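Thread: quick sanity check before group meeting

JM: Hey all, I'm pulling together slides for Thursday and realized we never actually wrote out the predicted structure for the chain we discussed last week. Dropping the sequence here so it's in one place. If anyone has concerns about the input, flag it before I start.
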Amino acid sequence: MTPVTTPITPPTLLLASRSPRRAAVLREAGYDFIQKDPPFHDPPQPEQARDPLELARSLAAMKALSLRDASPLPNSLILAADTLCLDAAGRLIGQPADRDDARRILRAFMGVTHAVITGVALLAMNDRQPETLTDSTQVFMHPIADAELETYLDTQQWRGKAGAYNLFDRQAAGWVIDVHGDPTTVVGLPMRLLVPRLEARGVRPTRKPTPHHELFQA
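JM (edit): ok, ran it. Output follows.
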């Protein structure tokens, strides 16, 4: 692994993601950053793999490398991530293809425990390879009424989301979802693991954390 040294001038943090949810997590944690869409996009339906942790880590690394190659910025630190869901049988669940697929995914999650894995890559301009980390969280989604599910599907908020939902949005809407692990891993950035790694790279919050700040602590 490339030795990590803390620079004198803090690097500019580049979030290599088009996800508004990841941006919101970073913003609520008090970080300043620039958000850029990386040229590499993970497939909506990820291939089945023996090691989902390695798959999430690999996809995050490829996103980081693609952004460095496309938009090099001196004294910057690229942050990329990839989130995967596994159903109760351990099968990978990607983004829903359509409304019926979103309904099927969510129905399959209700009343059983599923796993959410997020891989993260950190890449400075002079790094040969990204520094990577992964986190896995267990989620139990309590059943909801058919009418409530259909109302949610009408909103189209399931589009572009691994597992067809965003944890904080659904909890705010009244869905009962139990999380055993780091909730921010489910949202797309495992902040309990990420914050110390960002600090080691010279990137620190510039503002007081807001709403979910307690989730970012170890």
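AS: nice. The first helix runs from residue 20 to 28. Residues 12-204 form a domain with the Maf protein fold (CATH 3.90.950.10).
JM: adding both to the slides.
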